[in-house]
Amino acid sequence: MSTTRIYTLTISCPDRAGIIAAVSGLIAQHGGFIVEASYYTEQEMQRFFMRQEIRADSLPFGLTEFNAHFTSLAKEFDMDWHISDSAQKKRLAILVSKQDHCLNDLLHRWRTGELNVDIACVISNHMDLSSFVEWHKIPYHYVDMSNKESAFDTISNLYNSYQADAMILARFMQIIPPSLCQRYPGKIINIHHSFLPSFVGAKPYHQAYQRGVKLIGATCHYVTNELDAGPIIEQDTVRIDHGDTVDDLVRYGRDIERAVLSRGLRYHVEDRVLVWGNKTIVFR
Amino acid sequence: MSTTRIYTLTISCPDRAGIIAAVSGLIAQHGGFIVEASYYTEQEMQRFFMRQEIRADSLPFGLTEFNAHFTSLAKEFDMDWHISDSAQKKRLAILVSKQDHCLNDLLHRWRTGELNVDIACVISNHMDLSSFVEWHKIPYHYVDMSNKESAFDTISNLYNSYQADAMILARFMQIIPPSLCQRYPGKIINIHHSFLPSFVGAKPYHQAYQRGVKLIGATCHYVTNELDAGPIIEQDTVRIDHGDTVDDLVRYGRDIERAVLSRGLRYHVEDRVLVWGNKTIVFR
Amino acid sequence: MSTTRIYTLTISCPDRAGIIAAVSGLIAQHGGFIVEASYYTEQEMQRFFMRQEIRADSLPFGLTEFNAHFTSLAKEFDMDWHISDSAQKKRLAILVSKQDHCLNDLLHRWRTGELNVDIACVISNHMDLSSFVEWHKIPYHYVDMSNKESAFDTISNLYNSYQADAMILARFMQIIPPSLCQRYPGKIINIHHSFLPSFVGAKPYHQAYQRGVKLIGATCHYVTNELDAGPIIEQDTVRIDHGDTVDDLVRYGRDIERAVLSRGLRYHVEDRVLVWGNKTIVFR
Amino acid sequence: MSTTRIYTLTISCPDRAGIIAAVSGLIAQHGGFIVEASYYTEQEMQRFFMRQEIRADSLPFGLTEFNAHFTSLAKEFDMDWHISDSAQKKRLAILVSKQDHCLNDLLHRWRTGELNVDIACVISNHMDLSSFVEWHKIPYHYVDMSNKESAFDTISNLYNSYQADAMILARFMQIIPPSLCQRYPGKIINIHHSFLPSFVGAKPYHQAYQRGVKLIGATCHYVTNELDAGPIIEQDTVRIDHGDTVDDLVRYGRDIERAVLSRGLRYHVEDRVLVWGNKTIVFR
After folding, report:
1. Domains and CATH numbers, chain D
2. Which listed site, A15, A199, C103, C264, has its alpha carbon 20 to 30 Å from D254?
3. Considering only CB atoms, which chain B residues are within 8 Å of D269?
4. What are phi and psi of D269, to 5 degrees?
5. Which residues on A lie below 8 Å from B242 (Cβ)?
6. What's the average pLDDT block by block, 10 residues per block, for chain C (284 residues)?
7. What is the pTM of this model?
8. Chains contacting B with at least 3 CB pairs below 8 Å?
């Protein structure tokens, strides 16, 4: 809920001496004021990652001119880089089925201003949640899943027409087809109701109950072609015991799913997540 | 560290009305004073489980006579049951390799009286920890693993000759052969350095690092024929992040392994664990 | 969300041998089927506490006749006791000010059936949340706090006229007067935004920030005459670090407040909480 | 357990644009390779804090020459700063009374190389732990507390003669006199057996039991003149319930005390803790 306008610069490049000096030198040279700075070097691949928040009003120019100044430095260090402006809110398309515990949580965080996003639309394969969404004055789109291919075409078209930046699967009980995963890499975020890699696929709470585990969990991850195997953004667990039925696990699960999704989504929205291979760097 | 002598009665039987009344009625009839009582009905199988602690000095007789009084009731309700006497400490054989974080923890809890057991002996495939164990005046047995079959015969013989009640694998880096698992069902307790069922087998921290999980865990379980698949007694997790190397995971892991093993072992020692199929009821 | 109708019997009495036998004997004699049973003996005062869930359809009579059968036994053991019927939902009056994170959470749990209660009304000293509450078709009452005495008379009258069973202070930023606390002992439940007894009173997150603690917490407790000093039902903590501002603490706090309140309230609603002096026994 | 030799540079100064650029520029100019870097700006006081790990072998000179190069920059930015060399292990004097759970834990971490320190000596007001300490070939000094003033003179002399860098109160049940606190600011580390600021002073577990809290905790902090009120380095909590006696709290407490002390001490030893007023910045 920061009211200061911020530019967030994220960089990934091969590690070597002098990167921090070069980047912070360039920013300092223009009077740029760094509010938050995080660095990490992955040792195996000798890959360097950084994230810096710069106060927008401390620079004498906007992002276009920043890009012009930064390009040659980025080339010199072979950087993958990105800069975003907190004044440009990310636009989310939220996909749900019948369960609304994650949706209810995200809408609350949005309407109180905790989550700094626009919610472009909610898309569902059921009508159950339309009234609640519409009370928020957010468009609700029902999509018939009887023909999966055309259904996902519709979803993709909605996503594009709303100019959404991320697709949030807030307990959307349908498997996203590979074509869609490939079209939006790093843009589709799912909440899976287990502590991955345990209990991939359907009915993870039933699987957990059968195995007799003493904790259950939830996992927020980017969606890739391989089911429940994409880069993990956030996870958490909660203690259960022998007395808990599958229904109890589902109930505990709702609490942990919404907590994990909302944290993971916040990291994503604030450009705190950098993906490298199948892993994430999360600068919390 | 209770100084009161306690009988601990554990029962498992098909569920029906009147079990608690029958058992507590029998105990009350002889003036028995119940200190702690726990019940659980598994709904799928309609199986009833209970655990009661009775003050030994409140009964006018000892365990032999108790057994005589209890047998017909147990038959009527088709009970699996067991009663133990806190004055008869369980005897542990502890198996270790080179790492001593679990051993160090268990010996500390034993020498301060927190863990109400006798430590019959420590058995190892290395000599590294002999001096530390012997400082405690506990016998240390080195077993050469070059011939696995004779090595495990030696271990089994040691276990029997010390009249041990449980075999604790406190980071013993050898797979227990099926013959031994079958000989001592519910008696061999392992600490596995992952949150099972994730990362079965060797090098779980490397597996966790590769997968990019955001929490790691440890699991205390009874050993069965199937590797890392026996009934789980206790588990826990700890948060890590992208900056943690495999060495860091191993370091965090040591803390959580010893915590989980010591809790699971205490539950076992105090007869708080009832096994049913591949699951445990733990009356904490 | 159990669909089975349940009677919940709670008892507190001086400890002695035979209580469990007497109670479970009486229930068994009428064919009563115990679904869940919990016991605890407080050692200092030698006080016994129990809670039993009995399947309503296993008894040949209703609560009136049960009471008749139970009265003499209760007298014999000098019991404080209570029995409730899951078919008679508890009725809540929820009090809020401007912040709605707890209210939003409670209404979600209510409308999905997770929380087995009726919400009689919402009462507030602000109009901000009226539209959201009314979407749920729940009466919303604004109370002007400029005259505190008449305001609390109004609140008390509303509570009585709705025949409410509990008053939930879901971030109601007004101190309840002693007269009201005394009129409804064990009926007023508050969520305090600190880990009590730390940071009593106003602005606990500012206090926590100033002290430099490394975890913050929340406390659900019964309201008594002494501010923030009533019997604690539930608490929890969450890790923070030096980088978190007061605004961040408030944000983390919202998550933990709603979690702690919803758990504490569930325990209360399911008659899992027995109060003894200034402490609670919570049979989870 | 890093085997790479590392210089750790910590800085605290008034915030302004260009600090990171200046510091990392100086290091880069000499080929210095930054392994880990952390920054934080305290907003109220506009104070900047940083910590950098530099690979020793990447610089063409040692610490003396580094200091010469760094002094003018430090003056320009009005820095409080410090640089340490991982090859120069910190020397600890550990103070204990009769309970050894923290001592046992610290000695284990030291003898396995996890804690990169020298343990100069152990000082105690009891003889109980001498044999265990001496098995580690660490000097053990008994100090008679009947005359407090001379006792603390002895302790101070021992600390000085061993050239210790930090004094660790690992459950030393004596209050450190103000004179000693003032002589070694930021050098005396205590583990307090409560979640401060709750339950200051004696018998915190009894206080927690009487209050009926649902979690207990431990706090690692620097010792100052005011009892249990110094800057907090690390804290944690653990769940308890109504069934736990004071003895149970003490037992849970031992686990959390040693965990919190060992984490806090590691942060201190690795120069991850910067003190500012009565708060700490901990760059984990």
Report:
1. 6-85 (3.30.70.260), 90-282 (3.40.50.170)
2. C264
3. none
4. -65, -35
5. 40, 279-282
6. 84 93 94 92 92 95 94 96 96 98 98 97 98 98 97 98 98 95 96 96 94 98 93 98 96 98 98 97 96
7. 0.96
8. A, C, D
